[in-house]
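S.,

Sequence below, as promised.
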Amino acid sequence: MRTGQQYKDSLKDNRCIYIGGERVQDVTTHPAFTGIIDTVAGLYDIAADPKNKMTYVTEDGMIANKIYMIPRSREDLQERREAITTWAEATCGFVGRSPDHVASFLASFAGAAHVFERGGQRFKDNVVNFYKFARDNDLYVSYVIIPQQVDRSKAAHELDEKYVAMAVYEEREDGIVVRGSQMLGTGSAVSNYLFCSVISPLRPGDEDYAISFAVPMDAPGLKLYARPSYAQDKPSTFDYPLSTQFDESDSFVVFDDVFIPWEHVFVYKNIDLVRAQFHETPAHAVGNNQAQIRFATKLKFVIGVARKMAEMNGTDKFPQVQEKLGELASIASTVEGMMLASEYQCIQDEHGLVRPNPRFLYGIVGMQDTIYTSVIKILRELAGGGVLQGPSTYREMIHPETAADIAKYIRGGNVDSTQKIQLFKLAWDIVGSEFGGRHQQYEMFYNGAPFVVKGYSFRNYGYQEAVKLVERFLGSYQLPHDHERK
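The prediction came back faster than expected:
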């Protein structure tokens, strides 16, 4: 288990990140990244504190973070949930790609390493060895698993230029050289390693793109192009409490002839295995379990903001407001209930691995694009113009020429101006800031396009039970003879 300071120290390397037209000299001091780095460092400190019960004894007798636990029982899933919830509550659910996300994938890969053995024994060994390396060093691993959006009507090998999407450029005795690009590197700028693969369906002819590997963030030729920062240039955490602390950054990643040693390669030019690593292992389900634990926490937080605003404005007694708050409560309860149901009715495979029940897990994943937009819409309605009438920054609350006006005119029925402004600035950071807009887009598409995520639900519901009910009922009566008609 490492501390937050040890995590920060691990980022002082020669990683190549570009933002604002310049290369970042030190990610730990650049204002675009210091907020999220401090937040992640805080997560590591939480995990390292024994009172938070976020450690377990590994199969090798090591003490490790529960985010790397390979679930083999319902009790393991519960322990993981409690640990992940501890981190999610620390970030209010607004850090989607915290270290526990890809750790869930790596644990599932290692638990089902026999799947990778289909490509050769060495790839099975590579998966297990890298998992143990990441686990024992408590690494923050992020990922890029989606090709760049160039011409989505074509397979990767059909594009005019071969090395737009990430692909094998050269094979060597000691490893491979990778060239091309990949998206969407959420959190990659502040992570230690990058897991690289492709989750989008590949077609025959795409074999050079059908790879899976891990690479350190300071590998020569690895370049990150970060989107604009939502944390940089903000006046204070008081004015933008979420933007300044939880903007985890997104980057598209360029592989400019990056060398990957064989020991870090998990799948090599194998279209079937690239897909199997996600769906024949528990990885996709366990990774989405982490995402749903975070999402349930996030909804709980947003609904708490809505309730406090209604109380502060004295509208919580209005039937129409109670209706909206009740709708929010129904949504949040459904998400939490489905997440708990997937855990309670978990499925154990023949190898002793446990995964959340996909019926309930993907049922809520398939609704996520509409759930979050509905919640934000209700929060906007409850906030009204209140999120637009506050002072531009905290400075007007303390400046001798303006402080008296702010204190007198911007307040609630039972709270002072500072409390009201603080809450409504938080609400604005959820519904109206660039950070808030990014989160709406993220929750709608982080698992893919709507037809993709609803496809997971379609394939995992278990329609045979529903159809059997119908067929049993249809079989309980017959076409009547003429003399039986009434």
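The chain has a mean pLDDT of 93.

Coffee later?
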